[in-house]
Design goal:
heterodimer; A: mainly beta; six-stranded mixed beta sheet; five-stranded antiparallel beta sheet; B: mainly beta; seven-stranded mixed beta sheet; four-stranded antiparallel beta sheet; 11 strands
Chain lengths: ~110, ~120
């Protein structure tokens, strides 16, 4: 079985500040990890994914995430928040023969001017 | 641009009145998924098609059905919508399921309101 825990259902940052959204996973097989972003009344857009290889993954809109096996984490970061980053962010895991995505509960990011 | 399209974006129906939501894709992907997402919750997989093979999740109510007449289109039918079925319905596609690295691409969703 796989699971995802996103720490903090709501994160608020100032424009220009560091964005850090936390994701921890549980998986009995090597995980494949994803971050999706959802803007209000929109579908999910893939930000980045980790499959194998380099543990630091760069995505769109200046986001990146680092896979840390020892910590079972896949935290999402962005050095400088922009107002347009305000959205809900979902971490998801799949792996092994399980192609289905297991999502975390999401983190709502608010960016203050 | 290749994409996943959902129509309509907003749908209002009455309690108990059947409703159909539509999804189409230009990605030529083998797999199409339907998710239900209630307010402030994660998406929940209802079912998916691998080509013409239908795969239902164990906890998906019988009230929800799906059709995939061809590679490009997939429909979600709610036979008798209840107030609890009000949600965002998301369609997604992936090239395959043979590899866990197959990325799912999502459409913009249909917001269903049940009166």
């Amino acid at each position: 079985a796989q699971s995802v825990t996103q720490l903090g259902s709501h994160v608020s940052v100032s424009e220009g500040a560091l964005v850090l959204l936390r994701c921890n996973y549980s998986s009995s097989v090597p995980p494949y990890l994803f971050w999706y972003v959802q803007y209000p009344n929109q579908g999910l857009q893939l930000l980045l994914k980790y499959t194998t290889g380099a543990t630091l993954v760069k995505g769109i809109n200046g986001f990146e995430a680092e896979f840390k096996k020892s910590e079972t984490s896949f935290h999402l970061t962005k050095p400088s928040a922009h107002m347009s980053d305000a959205a809900e962010y979902f971490c998801a895991v799949s792996g092994g023969s399980n192609y289905k995505l297991t999502f975390g509960k999401g983190t709502l990011l608010t960016v203050n001017p | 641009d290749a994409m996943v399209i959902q129509n309509p974006r907003y749908q209002v129906t009455q309690f108990g009145k059947p409703v159909t939501l539509s999804c189409s894709q230009t990605l030529n992907h083998n797999v199409m998924y339907w998710y239900q997402q209630k307010s402030s919750q994660a998406p929940k997989l209802l079912f998916h098609y691998y080509d013409k093979d239908f795969n239902n999740e164990a906890d998906t109510p019988d009230n929800f059905q799906s059709r995939r007449p061809n590679t490009s289109f997939c429909f979600l039918d709610i036979r008798s919508p209840g107030l609890g079925d009000a949600a965002m319905y998301l369609c997604a596609t992936s090239r395959d399921t043979g590899s866990s690295t197959d990325t799912q691409y999502f459409g913009p969703g249909t917001r269903l309101t049940v009166l």
